[in-house]
Design goal:
The protein has 384 residues and is mostly helical. The protein has one domain: Ammonium transporter fold (Orthogonal Bundle), CATH 1.10.3430.10. It has 15 helices and 2 strands. Strands 1-2 form a two-stranded antiparallel ribbon. A hairpin with a 7-residue loop joins strand 1 and strand 2. The radius of gyration is 24 Å and the shape is globular. The chain starts with 6 loop residues before the first helix and ends in a 9-residue tail after the last helix.
């Protein structure tokens, strides 16, 4: 939902997640008081929260992105596209319409702001960098601070490792079983994350074919997201499966992640941070990996109970998905209909941080906002 949603409704949704959505899911799956929740009674297990945490967040995010629609400028017609578009007219005539034949934002900024107030070059450069216009919307490295992305991934890796190591249940390092579970969880997390990251780093550019001239030979985003995706895929059974099972899980998830990115590209779905491709698909993979590679009880061990375990895992996946989707849809769709969820067109074009910066500099952007309304057409794709 990045770059097109208001902040206050999202803060409200965070509050709903913490007081309504997550507590119910945690009670179902991780409640250790008494007999526990209904999923726990059936034998559901998810040590690192692949379903409980990551599937919940990924589904909420992808639903919000569907409701909001794509960011402005994405999936709009390019200047070299000669395909005719129908226009509303009495005779139903068809003529070529080019939605990108407009002044660039940089030119518009200079024309409007030069007449009102002096603006330093730093502010103009900052604003231009935020806009995915002039056919640069596919160039990820034009928009993102790569060192910041790598640093954020490094911090997330630390959190993921601790989460998978501690996990659910009651753990005591005073017991041999507790120490083994913690150690094998940490090892499996590193193994699955590393192999998934390495494969995505090498292969994603060739599987998700886009604008090759705008994509670096070695894609750092794939390196970061691949590691996060691999660690999520192994989270459910991290404390039980063998390291070779984590290696296979990470390898499988690498291709699942890349294929899901390709599908999202083909259907023109705007997920700015690849949230669903990274976490949503990995949480589903985790459900199967935990069942297949569970020692003495998994499918590969030909256990008679593996079928029932798989059924419980899929039941948990379905129950959590329905709960998240229903509540999230009611909240987000209601706000969208009330027109308080999505940013205005001129706010989306400029970016909220640019507007805050202009306000701190006491720059009056009213003339610019008015000019943006006139120069930039309405977006065709407006979401649900």
């Amino acid at each position: 939902m990045n770059e097109r949603s208001r902040l206050k409704p999202l803060l409200g949704y965070v509050f709903i997640l913490q007081v309504l959505l997550y507590p119910v899911i945690l009670c179902w799956a991780w409640n250790i008081n008494g007999d526990g929740g209904f999923l726990r009674k059936l034998g559901y297990f998810d040590r690192g929260g692949a379903l409980v945490i990551f599937q919940s967040g990924a589904l909420a995010g992808v639903l919000g992105a569907i409701i909001l629609g794509p960011r402005y400028g994405l999936f709009m017609r390019k200047k070299n596209d000669e395909t005719p578009l129908p226009t509303l007219g009495s005779g139903g005539s068809v003529e070529r319409v080019d939605l990108t034949q407009r002044k660039s934002l940089g030119t518009l900024l200079e024309e409007v702001l030069d007449e009102t107030v002096d603006v330093d070059d730093m502010f103009l450069s900052h604003v231009r960098r935020l806009i995915k216009a002039d056919n640069l919307d596919t160039n990820f490295y034009y928009m993102v601070n790569v060192p910041g992305m790598v640093l954020g991934t490094f911090l997330a890796v630390i959190g993921f490792t601790m989460l998978n190591t501690c996990g659910a249940e009651n753990h005591s390092l005073n017991s041999e079983g507790g120490r083994y579970a913690a150690e094998i969880s940490m090892l499996n997390t590193f193994v699955a994350g590393s192999v998934c990251s390495f494969l995505c780093f090498l292969l994603k550019r060739h599987i998700v074919v886009g604008d090759h001239w705008l994509t670096p030979r070695y894609d750092v985003r794939s390196l970061c997201n691949g590691y996060l995706s691999g660690m999520t895929a192994v989270a459910a059974g991290a404390g039980a499966m063998k390291p070779w099972g984590a290696l296979i899980t990470g390898t499988v998830q690498a291709f699942v992640y890349m294929i899901s990115c390709l599908i999202m590209q083909r259907v023109k779905f705007d997920d700015a941070m690849e949230n669903f491709q990274t976490f949503g698909t990995a949480s589903f993979t985790a459900m199967f990996a935990a069942v297949f590679f569970l020692p003495d009880q998994g499918v590969l061990w030909s256990s008679t109970s593996s079928g029932s375990i798989l059924g419980v895992q899929l039941l948990g996946w379905g129950a959590v998905s329905v709960w998240i989707l229903v509540i999230s849809w009611i909240y987000l769709f209601s706000l969208k209909r009330c027109r308080v969820l999505k940013l205005k067109r001129e706010q989306e074009l400029l970016g909220q941080d640019a507007l805050y910066r202009a306000k701190s500099k006491r720059i009056d952007l009213k003339p610019l906002k008015k000019a943006l309304k006139e120069a930039y057409p309405e977006h065709v794709k407006k979401g649900c």
